[in-house]
Structure formats: C-alpha cells, structure tokens
# Entry
Amino acid sequence: MAEKRDYYEVLGVQKGCSEDELKKAYRQMAKKYHPDLNPGNKEAEEKFKEVNEAYEVLSDPQKRSRYDQFGHAGVDPSYGGGAAGDPFGGAGGFGGFDMGDIGDIFEGFFGGGFGSSRRANPNAPRRGSDIRTQISISFFEACAGVKKRVSVAKTEACPSCRGTGAENGTAMKTCPDCGGTGQVRVQQRTPFGMISSQRPCEKCGGRGRIIEKACPKCGGKGYNSTTKTVEVQIPAGIDDGQTLSLAGQGNAGTNGGPAGDLLVMITVRPDSLFTRKDYDIYCEIPVSFYQAVTGDELTVPTIDGNVKYNLPEGTQPGTVFRLRGKGVQRLQGRGRGDQYVTITVDVPKNLTKEQLDKLRAFDDAITEKQTTKKKKFSDKLKEMFEGRE
# Structure
C-alpha cells in the first residue's frame, strides 16, 4: 500500500490552523486541481481526490482529533490492521490495544467492568461517509441560479447482494468463535497477575458474522466503486464559498445504513464590472465633467439588463445612488438586495493649448457662490492661518 502524505501537508497548512485557514486552503487547492480546469490530467485528478480526502478528515473535529493523535491509523481502516470500518486498528482498539481492556482491567481487579456493555453492535447499520467536490460558476450564474453536472467517484451498495457481501441466495451465519459479538476474550499474564481483555475476533474480522459464499460481483465487500454524474441545482443568490448538501448522494452505508451526502462547494468567478457584498451589488459609472455639471440620462447596467437613471446637475465625484431591488435574490426567497452605483468623473488628459486656455478662462469665471466646496475649503484655510497669528 502506498504511503499516504500528511493531510496538513496536502492542504499546505500548519497542524494548529483555524477552521477558516483550513477552508481557505482547501478552496485554493481544490480549484487548482479541479478536473474541469485540468481536463485529461490524471495526476491533477489524483491530487484533487487527495485534497478532498484530507479536507473531509480535517474539517470534522472528531476525525481531526483522532488524526492528530494517531495519524492515518486513526481515520483509515486500511492502516494498523483493523477490521473494515474500524478506524483504530480493530473493533474498538488502538493498534492492538482494545479500549475495552480498561473495563476488563477493572473487572479483573474489582469484579465489575464498564467497557463491554458500551461496545457498539458490529452489525448495526452505519451511515456512509460524505463526499466533497467543487463547482465553479460565473457571477451571473450565481445571481440567477443554474443547473450543473458534476462527476463524482463514490461507492454504491452492490445490487447483486444488496450490500450484504454474500452471494445472492446464500445467508451469513453467526461466527462460532465469538458468538456474533465480534469480540473474543483472552487472558494475559502480567506482573499484576492474570488480566482478562477482549480482542477483535480473527475469524470474522470483528463483524460477528461469516460470509459462507462471497458475492462474485463485489467480492464480499457489499459495495462497488463507481463514477456517477450528478445534476446539481444551484439556487439563485448562492455566494462564493457556500456549500450545497445533496442528501444520500455520498458513499454507501454498511449493514443497511443510509448513504452519506454529497457536499458541493461553490466557487464564484469574479466579474469585471460588478462586485457583491451579501445580497447587494456595487459598480462604478464614469461620466464626463460636462455630464456631472449639467446632468444627463445615464444607461446603468444591472444583472437584469440596462436601466435608465437621471443624473442630477452638479453631481459630485464619488456620489453614490441606490437602485432598490436590483441586487441579488435572497436564498430564503424573501426579496432582493439593492444595487449601489458610484459616480466617477473622467478627467481628460493631453489637452491642447487652446483647450487649456478655455478651461482656465472658465475656471476664472466661476464664483464662490457656484462652488460650495471650494468656498468652504477657502474659509477653513483662512480660519486655520488666522488662528496661528
């Protein structure tokens, strides 16, 4: 088995990083190796799977805690020699030491235990794991909503054996060694005397049942690996970094348990004209000096198309006006945000001497009554210098 890289190294973060740092790193790496951006690149596809696997573990507080303590053996049943579905090297164990040992030690010393009564039923239904993927959409697709199709690698319950792992028409029998508990009791001689403990049953691998004849379609696993194309309905108003959850589209459960979910992180590509904050949209409209002075009817772009706006005369640079209801649809369906338009004055360059002379004459003809800001500034300068005398 190939040695797995450290999950923190895969995402390029430190071990003690915050959830926000982890999420930001995941988004960057997932976007870098996304199959849609690297068509036909098998190496990028494998990197993408590796990034998703790392984030699935580190974004779950419990899994992350186990990984920090025990590494891959704490979250991957293929490490440490444990039974299938057991993240700690055996049913309830840590690489050979059963957590039930503590209860059995107490039982050996005090005649009573607390470990065995709380062990999970090895045959109880277990929910499948979630799958994470990413979809990149445009700014306008995020505003209006869109359907996208995404391919995901997942496991599905074997249709031939219906997830049991046994060939159709055959049954699973109770393990004779453990009596269906998945555990066998052993005694160990220690300096403190004989201590009783429990270990996963080797005969059934801790499952408590034995498949007499394995299903030829899945080899007794109860599931098959496949690649599915899933249609994702992205609602209007979705924002960059938000995640959609598709119930039951994740990996198959075990022992009849439900499938996990498909978690789709949305990446919204920036637009050259519009920016967004929550459900409001912002843009800038350049006007000429003449338009700012005299006023004009402007054509203002919105996500719904162009609208007309009457710019009042004497509009100052940096003036912001609002277009009510021209923002983004709220995800809850309760109305829309607004659009805010900032006016910028386009100052001409490289004027001719004749143009400069006319502009200077025009500026000299302007009185203080016609320019309130200039008058106020002159008054403030006068007050400032008079105060220093």
